[in-house]
Write a structure and sequence with these properties.
The protein is mainly α. It contains 1 helix and no strands. The longest helix is centred in the middle third of the chain and has 112 residues.
């Protein structure tokens, strides 16, 4: 009977080990399930963040295109204003020359008429 008792004792130890391993496996399975849920949540968040980044990039590209358009518009307007200023300066110079010529003529007429 002693052999049978030893076998039963060994079987009880094995059963105890199996129970312990089963409990550990359940804990690991629970942790694995928790990690899977977290991984899934992080995947969803990553996808949302990717969509947000894509929207931000698109918005930035749109704003850049608007700014480029404004720069081109401002450059054209500045060029037109520069031409107008040049024309005004030319006209002003012509008026100055005409005024000077008129003063010279008036002075000459006064001199010839004897008016000093």
């Amino acid at each position: 009977m002693e052999k049978e008792d030893q076998i039963i004792e060994m079987l009880e130890k094995i059963m105890g080990s199996l129970d312990e391993h089963g409990r550990i496996l359940k804990e690991h399975s629970k942790k694995h399930d928790e990690h899977s849920a977290q991984f899934k949540e992080h995947g969803t968040q990553l996808k949302e963040h990717g969509q947000l980044l894509a929207a931000l990039r698109s918005g930035q590209e749109h704003l850049k295109a608007e700014m480029d358009g404004m720069k081109i518009g401002n450059a054209k307007e500045f060029g037109a204003l520069k031409e107008e200023i040049s024309l005004v300066s030319t006209n002003q110079e012509l008026i100055r020359e005409d005024t000077w010529a008129n003063k010279v003529d008036i002075h000459r007429i006064k001199n010839t008429m004897g008016m000093k």
